[in-house]
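User: Let's play a game. I give you a shape written as tokens, and you guess the letters that built it. Ready? Here's round one.
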């Protein structure tokens, strides 16, 4: 794999750290700024709102910007947003800083996924995208616990100063390691929007919303389940969450090769396994060893879905994949908010601390149904190709000067000789 993927992974590490660290810092922020913890929870929502707004907006505005310059610019916005958060004197300005930090999130992963796929040879695109996402999963194992600990001992502002520093390192890495990659000049916003309107792209986004909502219906209340049902002490919760991050990493490692081999079967299998494991977790939660195994498996099967979902929407919008890939990040964040809301509803109904696992299983099963319907429609339209399990070949197509798809050699010829991996 080319070194340029390391720059993308470093950037993903910083983004993942700032996205999830706020959950552990809410009491410190609330105490320092004189507000309640529930009100401080709006800081999580502000970041998610920034992702949903920024993904299509910044992708559209940067549709003609060279990819390398776009990635550096997006990380610059991310860095400024975290610096503004660290220096915010009031709760309102901290909300604005979190919103600003979230704006480039979706656009970065959208552009970054397309760039990652263009950096490697045919048949390894999914592995390249999964490598970028590894930075996000490792953030949950190392970055979030370390940043939370730092914030608890040196103050929450120190956390965001460190994340801003990571942003600067990421910008330098992107500038140094990413080869020149021009934007597709004949695609434009109109082409991106037409690609986004593809039925298979929309069904892929809907699969993301349902499938990942199943994960977040459980993850949002996992700490309470571990203390109230499983019987772990509150001090053990960070270790349990780290196990979830380990599961995510294992899922990301497996997702690349499996998706390159057979995209739709990987998606079907991961969603089906996720639904079964979430349902089983309802019964396993009271047993400590079974609960810990379940946490790892939920993280692994949940993140096993991310690469095939990302590659699916990119392939089905392959003449203009950037906006579709970025919109998939918006779908992930809608799933985050929706899953947490549905999990809260079943808890409020008095169905018990483990009831979100059953709600999550239903959501994951709904995602599987959408994916199966999409696959059947795909086969009916004659778009399938051998060996891909009902999806188009994993290929991001460059465009030539006349606006037509360029030959495969053209896309790679634009890169330096050492930019295309084995």
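Assistant: Ready! My guess for every position:
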């Amino acid at each position: 794999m080319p070194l340029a993927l390391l720059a993308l992974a470093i950037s993903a590490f910083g983004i993942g750290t700032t996205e999830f660290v706020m959950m552990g810092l809410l009491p410190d922020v609330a105490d320092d700024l004189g507000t309640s913890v529930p009100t401080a929870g709006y800081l999580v929502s502000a970041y998610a709102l920034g992702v949903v707004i920024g993904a299509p907006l910044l992708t559209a505005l940067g549709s003609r910007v060279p990819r390398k310059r776009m990635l550096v610019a997006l990380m610059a916005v991310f860095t400024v947003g975290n610096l503004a958060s660290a220096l915010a004197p009031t709760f309102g300005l901290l909300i604005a800083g979190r919103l600003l930090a979230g704006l480039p999130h979706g656009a970065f992963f959208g552009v970054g996924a397309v760039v990652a796929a263009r950096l490697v040879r045919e048949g390894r695109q999914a592995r390249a995208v999964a490598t970028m996402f590894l930075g996000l999963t490792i953030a949950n194992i190392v970055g979030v616990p370390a940043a939370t600990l730092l914030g608890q001992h040196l103050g929450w502002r120190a956390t965001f100063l460190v994340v801003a520093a990571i942003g600067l390192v990421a910008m330098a890495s992107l500038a140094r390691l990413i080869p020149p990659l021009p934007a597709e000049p004949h695609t434009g916003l109109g082409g991106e929007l037409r690609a986004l309107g593809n039925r298979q792209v929309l069904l892929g986004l809907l699969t993301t919303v349902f499938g990942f909502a199943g994960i977040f219906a459980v993850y949002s209340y996992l700490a309470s389940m571990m203390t109230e049902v499983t019987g772990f002490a509150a001090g053990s919760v960070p270790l349990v969450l780290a196990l979830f991050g380990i599961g995510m990493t294992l899922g990301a490692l497996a997702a690349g090769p499996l998706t390159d081999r057979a995209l739709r079967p990987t998606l079907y299998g991961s969603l089906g396994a996720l639904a079964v494991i979430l349902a089983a977790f309802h019964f396993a939660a009271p047993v400590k060893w079974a609960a810990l195994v379940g946490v790892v498996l939920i993280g692994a099967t949940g993140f096993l879905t991310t690469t095939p979902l990302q590659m699916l929407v990119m392939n089905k919008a392959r003449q203009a994949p950037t906006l579709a890939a970025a919109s998939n990040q918006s779908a992930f964040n809608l799933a985050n908010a929706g899953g947490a809301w549905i999990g809260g509803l079943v808890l409020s109904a008095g169905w018990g601390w483990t009831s979100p696992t059953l709600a999550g299983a239903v959501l994951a099963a709904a995602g599987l149904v959408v994916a199966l319907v999409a696959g059947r429609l795909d086969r009916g339209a004659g778009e399938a190709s051998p060996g891909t399990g009902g999806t188009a070949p994993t290929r991001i197509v460059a465009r030539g000067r006349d606006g037509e798809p360029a030959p495969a050699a053209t896309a790679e010829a634009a890169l330096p000789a050492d930019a295309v991996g084995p």
